[in-house]
Amino acid sequence: MSPPPNQPAAPDEVVADRHRRNVILACCSLSLFIVSLDATVVNVGLPAIQRDLHASVAGLQWTIDAYTLVIASLLLLSGSLGDRFGRRKLFQIGLVIFGIGSLACSLAPNLGSLIAFRMLQAVGGSMLNPNSLSIITSVFTEPKERARAIGVWGGIFGISAASGPIIGGLLIDTIGWRALFWINIPVVVVASYLAARTVPESRAAKPRRLDPPGQLITIALLSSLTFAIIEGPDHGWTSPLIAGLFAVAAVSMIALVTVERRRLEPLLEVRFFRSPPFSGAATIATLAFLILAGFLFLNTLYLQEVRGDSALMAGVSTLPATIVIAVVAPLSGRMVAARGSRVPLTGAGVLLAGGALVLAADRATSPYLLLAVGYLLLGLGFGLVNPPITNTAVAGMPQSQSGVAAAVASTSRQTGNVLGVALVGSLVTTRFHRLLAPRLAPFHLPAATHAALLHSGIGATGLHLPGGAGGALAAAVDSAFTVASHAGWYLAAGCGIAISLVAAVTTGPKARAAAARVMREA
Question: What are the two backbone dihedrals, phi and then psi, of residue 308, each rounded to the nearest 5 degrees?
Answer without folding.
Answer: 75, 20
